[in-house]
Amino acid sequence: MRRRRGWRDFAVVAWAGMAVIVSLAHVWIPSASWLLIHLVGLGIITHSIMVWSAYFASTLLKVRADENAVAQQNRRLGLLALGSLAVFVGVPSVQWWLVAVGVVAVSAAVIWHAAPLIRDLKRALPMRFRVVVRYYIAAAACMPIGAGFGAGLAWGLGDTWHSRLLIAHTMTMLLGWVGLTVVGTLVTFWPTVLRTRMDPRAELLAKQSLPVLLTALAVVLTGALLGWRPVAVVGLGLYAIGLAWWARSLIAPMLQRPPREFASASIAAAIVWFCIAGLATGWAVLRLDDVRLADAYPKLGGVWAVGFLVQLVTGAMSYLLPSVLGGGPRVLKAGAAWLDRYAGARLTVINLGLAVWLLPIPSWAKVAVSVVVLAGLASFLPLMVLGIKAAVQERKAMAQEKADGGRPHAVADRAGAAAAAQAKTGQPHLPKTLTGSGALAGVAAVVLAVTVGIGVDPGAAGLQAVGGSSNTADTEVTPTGETVRLEVDAVNMSFTPNTATVNAGDHVIIELTNQDEANVHDLQMGSERTQRLRYQESEELDLGVVGESIEGWCTVAGHRQMGMVFNLNVQGGPEGDGAGAGDVAAQNTDPSAGGSMAGMDHGAQASGSQASADPEAELSDVVDPGLEPAEVTDGTENADHEVTLEVTEVPLEVAPGVWQQRWTFNGSGLGPTLRGKVGDTFEVTLVNNGSMGHSVDFHAGEVAPDDNMRTIPPGEKLVYRFTANRSGIWMYHCSTMPMSAHISGGMHGAVIIDPEGLPEVDHEYVLVQSEVYMDGDGAREEDANPVNATAVAEGQEPTFVVFNGVANQYDQEPFKVKVGERVRFWVLDAGPNRPFSFHIVGDQFDTVYKEGGYQLRDGTDAFGESGGGSQALGLEAAQGGFVELEFDEAGNYPVVNHVMTDAERGAHGVVEVTE
CA-CA distances (angstroms) from residue 842 to 102, 885, 888, 892, 899? Predict the structure, then answer.
């Protein structure tokens, strides 16, 4: 049976190996940070929990695992591995169905795992420490809930719900699935690892703490899901109280025999990092907005994963693996001798390295420290293999000795021989692997890593490079020793002051404060950038020692074009090229930075972009152009329409195989089309779940813009009410400046108010033309950047001209009608810059309605002349109307903007007419 069980931990080795590979190749792997954290949490930790909680439960309840139970466990672990793999592939590849399948499989495996625990607990005789199994069952109940929250995150939501589910998902997994399992296990496992007696209060304290921990977790989830951040933090505080009450049972064993082996010391370090990560998470949940919380979570995840999860599992396995192999003290000591190798150095490198990595050190120093920490973590894998090998060899030696009549066999050449020999003599084995020399070696390794990182880029640390500048320029500069602090305010689309002068060699620190109530702002200077700041938030930008003049700007799309530029003039140094150190800023590819910072040096492509549609690519989603009739009332009163427009910023396809980070109303390439009749009222609630200020302007209403069209910052909402007094197709759009960037970025839609007596037709469609200005090629979803605000503002040629937000989508999904059916196309030019000449190749319009009036109605013009027709409906930006026609023959009729260059850029579709 033991041999059949042997493969069960292979998955841990596989996930750990993949985690090492992702760490080393993260630059080329999509969603690498997410993948790394989940390889640890979902891969290594979840597998380990299912294996070892089952082992401990059977031991405590005195239930013997027969062949059938082992086979069932192997099937559960196989289902878990397949589900985990589906999640690991589905999230980076943006295949939500695969994520959903994986989540269901993982949840089913954990529920299946809990079933025998519940059964065995009911059947077992009353005995001590049954509460441990109750912890395992409670933890298993949390896991599917947390997995469901994770599936919701993978679906793709606005910033508000993303942050809510992010908190709920992580806290359910860390405090529920992992936390409850760890608390239950350490009740008996902690004194066992320390090789001492447990606190006599341990079982009672565990029983008392369980309801407190479950209540606290419920409070955390309630606060997170309802958006009540302070309530969630109160829940975290209550969880901390429950932990503190239980943790009293850990102190006495540790005082009796402090950690002296890798296993106990690693578990102790994990507990400390659990506390640190919990405090940091509570602070982030309480203080950061939705966007900044999402930005902070990868670093928090690193602390949870490296500091807590990995050290916990390596510490536990260092003790458990030799123990479960059996064979007595000799086998145990032989295996443990390898697993304790270099313990002091490894633990120091991991824990000191993680602490240094969290400090504001230069980026190359972070990279170097990360490599050292990774080496310390990864060293467990070969030591584990060697430890198991040594234990197996010792078992074989013992078997041979027994066969030879008890004659001792030489052990000097075997790994772990000294420990095994000592165990054989019956002498007490009190190892002390945490030596001062090992710790000193670990400190030296971390210091060396920091030194190497600073040596690669001394300017980032404010030091002078040999033969070069301390500000990454290629010019020598001698530090003056002076530190210059500049206070800069962001307000009314400008920096105040917008220029400053310092001396070459000065150490410059800029303190940016956002005094703009409606917008978020940041400041990028060279390669350094602040976070996006809300009203009255401040942040320091440390430029180090400067050697040349630098131009900086706000990276929110369009804000630089509106004048948010800051110039740092450096006297006594060379003139910069406008982008500062080595033109780093001009190469900025940060998707959150907005418009193209590199100007127009990408060749002859439109809007400076190299993006081009892939004619073979199939669109992932097509916007439905069909229209529902206006709401019918009893004729005595007008309809009231209540609408919510949620602003989100999401990656969407704008052409086959081309992605852009779109600013949207309700998450689609086109805002929802609203429809009503003259006299109807509309109450629109605008909810800004984006990362910058947004607004809305309804052309269908007649209201003062001062309040209704004001820009609101992220996280706020406003209510816009208007009555539709006139018919037509009216544009609505974001009116936040620069308006051209917000409209072309995706924030537009249509309101249709039917003319009186509008007849029914067989089909009605809406086509809104707009322009797309790409920044980069957008070849993958993760490459999606926002609108190129520079190209829009300068009136450059658009990359694509699109119908309903996506180029050529109605070539792939044509409009389908039958011969003789009457069709009405409502058309609107959302602009912001290009005209629209709506034309259907091969047919003519007998009815044309433009800007509130008929130009042609059933072939009769405004002067009563009949027999007329129309070939195109010409519109300027923000104009609209509709046309009607019938098709006499089956065939495929192209729908185009007859400004043919724009049709070739994507303003093209097909009407498929059948008999």
Answer: 50, 11, 10, 9, 17
